[in-house]
Amino acid sequence: MPWYQTTITLVLAGILLPPVGLVLLWIRSGSVVLKILGSLVIGGIGLAHLFLFYGLRLDLDGSASRPFLTFRNPESHYKTLEADRAAHKAEPTPPPVESVRSVQAAPETAKPRNYWTDFRGPNRLGIYDQAPILTQWPAGGLKRLWKQPVGGGYASFVVADGLAFTIEQRRDQEVVAAYDVGTGRERWTNSWKALFQEGMGGDGPRTTPVYDEGRVYALGAEGEMRCIEAGTGKVIWNKNILTENGARNLTWAQSASPLIVDGKVIVLPGGSGGKSVVAYDKVTGKTVWSSLDDEQSYTSPMVVTLGGKRQLLIVSALRAMGLTIEDGKLLWDFPWVTEYHINSAQPLLVGPNRFFISAGYGHGAALVELTPEGEKFKTRTVWQNTKMKNKFNTSVLYQGHIYGMDEAILACIHADTGDLKWKGGRYGYGQLLLADGHLVVLTESGEVVLVKANPAKHEEVAQFSAIEGKTWNHPAIAGGVLFVRNTTEMAAFQIGR
Known about the structure:
Elements (H helix, E strand, L loop, with lengths): L6 H10 L1 H10 L4 H22 L2 E5 L6 E5 L2 H17 L10 H4 L22 E2 L14 E7 L8 E3 L2 E8 L2 E8 L5 E8 L16 E3 L2 E5 L4 E6 L5 E6 H4 L14 E3 L2 E4 L9 E5 L5 E5 L10 E5 L2 E7 L3 E5 L6 E6 L12 E4 L2 E6 L4 E10 L2 E10 L10 E3 L2 E6 L2 E6 L5 E7 L4 E5 L2 E5 L4 E6 L7 E6 L10 E3 L2 E5 L3 E6 L3
Parallel strand pairs: 3-29
Antiparallel strand pairs: 1-2, 4-35, 5-6, 6-7, 7-8, 9-10, 10-11, 11-12, 13-14, 14-15, 15-16, 17-18, 18-19, 19-20, 21-22, 22-23, 23-24, 25-26, 26-27, 27-28, 29-30, 30-31, 31-32, 33-34, 34-35
Helix pairs in contact: 1-2, 2-3
């Protein structure tokens, strides 16, 4: 018998090189039934090889019901990331911030230079109106300024003083990083030991840092919050908002980005005993006030004016509510109970006394109206239906119509009536922004798509592949530059005219 047909050769090949083992098995003489059984054994060994050595994993899309196979090797990715950042340090010092103004800044008369300093942009509305954008794209897509690996997590970017800030997971540390807008070069990092892991949603931090008056405020997945000098990365103050307020972490971790308003940092630890919503002094980190006992969810707090009253708009696990900015007193509430108590999408202001709220898991959306009642307000439902189900993707408002992801499909509804105008464009559980009368959609698979904000029909203008891999992170636009990232890659593209 030739050496390659011996049993010992077959066994060794099946263990060390499963594809070779399969070939050797089937060129041997013997029972077909035994060959099929042997093929199943060798196939199982082959899958183990793919899992152990090549990063094969079973992942879930945004519906959490459609599994797919993906190759993800964390060790290989971290080595690539670390080599890339080491190369950054070896490069010559970049030019001063002023020399990249042509790349990142709009005309001085249009909007403030430090424009996209908050989660989803000014007022957290997901609207870019700093300057016009390109609405006719080249066949290959927008001009890419840079592309490079990034650590894990689902944060977006904020942009100020020529730097783009985000928070990411690198091995067992959460890292706040500042990148040069024009080159993508890492300028500084600030890190601490933390590793949030969750099989369904994924690992790493979820919140987006916020920039304010030379400081960056960042919140990690396990509650570590830091106030950091934006120019240097030096810590000004820090604390763990869960520990300090006796709160338990959420199933999918801290996801509500800090909110800066009137000298305060508003966070949502969800502690009992009046520590569900907490305001800290933004300069010192001292507690200014705390309020409510609500279990919190994943929606970030907002500053709005409703019914003529400037206030905080909070969506907890069981209700939407308005709080006074000064001391956190409850002004009104609206029951909003979803499956698993999951609220992730941001609400939208639709009028002087109306707001839109939406949730996934089959729950749907509602338009809520506030009416003054003494020093407080009463609420009523104008309409409620299941025609817009924002799971962890937030809609935008444009000319009386709401555009957003109804689960995984782009849709348009009339804001005042809730009537469905159209539904089309399977972009997965991606994210979108409004800019220059168009929707800039970052799909779940990493494409950037331009869609006209037209209530008459779904009209896709352009599409190109920007980054690879499952993409749940919100895009950001500042000074005509589009920033995108996911858990492994980040890139910047020239979208301004």
